[in-house]
Design a protein that fits this description.
Largest interface: A-B, 33 and 57 residues
Largest sheet of chain A: 4 strands, antiparallel
Strand order of the largest sheet of chain A: 1-3-6-5
Structural class of chain B: mainly alpha
Helix content of chain A: 10-25%
Largest sheet of chain B: none
Number of strands of chain A: 8
Number of helices of chain A: 1
Order of helices and strands of chain A: HEEEEEEEE
Oligomer: heterodimer
Radius of gyration of chain A: 23 Å
Shape of chain A: elongated
Structural class of chain A: mainly beta
Number of strands of chain B: 0
CATH topology of chain A: Immunoglobulin-like
Helix content of chain B: over 70%
Shape of chain B: globular
Distance between the termini of chain A: 84 Å
Chain lengths: 126, 291
């Protein structure tokens, strides 16, 4: 094998390898579970808190939840808390949910600094 | 705001790599008899990159405050910036990093020859700690720690290679002087020897990082993964250029051959390719890896 073919061979092998590395990437935190579940119809006993489970660890200081009643006004909620896994958010409800469609709008900032948003609804029967 | 963050990321990565590369080149590779020639150029490089590192680090923090908070106005909101520094994983790392960057600027000015290792230590911290933010911060436990270690190795080996290229151009100019040729050749051979190890670490940690971040979620429709493939392609070209430099141009150096000039041109090509890779890194890091 000549010097040149050896170089060419090495070059081909190297290019064929996955050489690159991922930069520190910013993943979106996605909502993966809710209690009560999204689109659920809830009736008495009404929940006193909502739980939102995310796919990534969250930064509590920058994560926001707005719970809106059927008329679109924001309902009073207590301070958010984060579970030991860093991914489960609990929202205490200050008063029982009113009857009708409840919209939960969330803004989550993952520990890698990336922000994601979403919303889901519940229906309160009776 | 995204453009500002991307620009800050580009300059920050470039400055950290240049700072570490120049410091390592001078402390590890330059023989005592060549120090007088390379002392000035490497010190200017280290000082300039330390200044860019600090400024781009501050802009990155402000852009991050805007991204985490409620928009561009939060880039200048001290309360939000304070919350980022005090209450987030990014901020905890970043506060210490900014202190290191500030120390680096101060240290790069008056360092006597015997104290140049201080610049090497500070630049190692500044570059390596970039592996603690971003996606590497997302997993906790053993997997997260392995991801961070692999990311740090990737950063430091890329710094050793890419950051050495500008000092290497100075070194190659010394080959024109017959009195210094042998010394410069010794330094070049040390760079080449350690460069092989750096490239090997770079490739292995690159494969590991790709696995950590993407794993089984390979999806060519994802813009992140498309840009990553472009980055891998350019990294491949850089390796080809490095192989040509080492095994075609370098053997043509002795006895006034054309090798030193060819090697300088090949090195410039590597610098351009390396800058393209950093531009991609600046953008890729702001995207979601899959989905």
């Amino acid at each position: 094998m000549t010097n040149f073919t050896r170089i060419a061979l090495a070059a081909v092998l190297l290019v064929g390898l996955p050489l690159g590395a991922a930069a520190p990437a910013l993943a979106h935190a996605a909502l993966v579970s809710e209690v009560p579940a999204a689109d659920a119809i809830v009736s008495a006993p009404l929940p006193t808190e909502l739980t939102l489970g995310f796919s990534e660890g969250l930064e509590l200081s920058f994560t926001k939840i707005v719970v809106k009643g059927p008329d679109g006004t924001a309902l009073a909620t207590g301070a958010l808390t984060l579970g030991a896994d860093g991914k489960t958010l609990t929202v205490p409800l200050a008063a029982p949910l009113p009857k009708g469609t409840i919209t939960i709008e969330w803004t989550a900032v993952a520990t890698d600094g990336h922000k994601s948003k979403g919303s889901y609804t519940l229906t309160v029967a009776n | 705001m995204d453009a500002l963050l991307a620009a800050a990321r580009f300059f920050h990565y470039a400055a950290a790599i240049q700072f570490f590369g120049a410091a390592a080149f001078y402390v590890v590779l330059v023989p005592p008899d060549l120090r007088r020639d390379l002392r000035g150029p490497t010190r200017i490089l280290e000082l300039a990159s330390a200044v860019v590192l600090l400024l781009s680090g501050i802009v990155w923090l402000m852009a991050q405050a805007a991204a985490m908070g409620d928009g561009p106005q939060d880039a200048l909101n001290p309360a939000v910036i304070g919350t980022v520094l005090g209450d987030t994983e990014f901020g905890h790392v970043w506060g210490s990093r900014l202190i290191i960057c500030a120390l680096a600027v101060v240290a790069a000015v008056p360092l006597a020859d015997g104290a140049r290792w201080i610049g090497l230590v500070l630049s190692t911290l500044a570059l390596g700690s970039l592996g603690l933010v971003g996606h590497a911060a997302i997993d906790s436990g053993l997997l997260g720690a392995l991801n961070e270690i692999s990311q740090m190795l990737h950063l430091l080996s890329s710094g050793f290679w890419l950051g050495a290229l500008l000092p290497l151009l100075y070194l190659l100019a010394l080959f024109r002087d017959a009195a210094r040729e042998a010394l410069a050749d010794g330094a070049l051979r040390r760079f080449s020897g350690l460069g092989h190890i750096a490239v090997a670490i770079l490739l292995l940690s690159g494969v590991a990082n790709t696995w950590f971040v993407i794993g089984g979620r390979a999806d060519l429709a994802s813009p992140y993964q498309q840009l990553l493939l472009v980055k891998i392609g350019i990294a491949g070209l850089m390796c080809v250029m490095a192989i040509v430099n080492r095994y075609v141009f370098m053997p043509a150096i002795p006895n006034g051959g054309p090798g030193a000039r060819q090697l300088a041109r090949g090195t410039l090509t590597e610098i351009v390719l390396g800058a393209l890779i950093l531009a991609l890194v600046a953008m890729i890091g702001m995207m979601a890896p899959a989905g």
